[in-house]
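Slide 14.
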Amino acid sequence: MAATKRDTHPIDTMLAISDVLTHPRLAQLYTRVRERDTATVDELAAGLDSSSTTIYEDVNQLTDMGLLERVTETQPHRYRAPHLSITVETDEGSYEITPTLIAALARSADNQNLELYRDRHGTAGLAIATEYARAYVKGKMTSRIMARELDLSVLEAETILQELREIIIDVEPDAQDDLDLDAIDAQVDLDDEDLSEHSE
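Slide 15: predicted structure.
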């Protein structure tokens, strides 16, 4: 019988997500569970540098936060990661926190391009780039437009769009359902021109 899910206040959820956004290992664990549908502590520990004991403590922390749910009563316990989506409003604009952003933060621990972009522009900047990348996947955005609107070099915009594109395709398979193939062909031509101009 699955464990009973306890109610979590929205403020508690926001505080929990704040912890995940600032601790890459927690982001990695949440993302790993999402990728596997359900997982045990030993499955999560495989391939990570941390010990099973540390992962167990982190999983308990995420469970207490409400970001993981235990779905079995017998050992070894299996956990699932519920979908989350929170929009944060600030004076500078709104930012959407989703499993895709958390996956990007998780992968930044092993991906130099993601890590560099986050170091330069912060987590908020990565969240904004994720929105641009979502439009990019649908053929509605180019690196040139992103570079102009965010005051980036075209090369930096193209690099982060390509990195985030892979994550979005993995995490949001439905993102490609309404692809505009003509727009994508035009986008590829423009981006190839931009990269050629900036590599000369």
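Speaker note: The chain has two domains: 10-80, 86-199.
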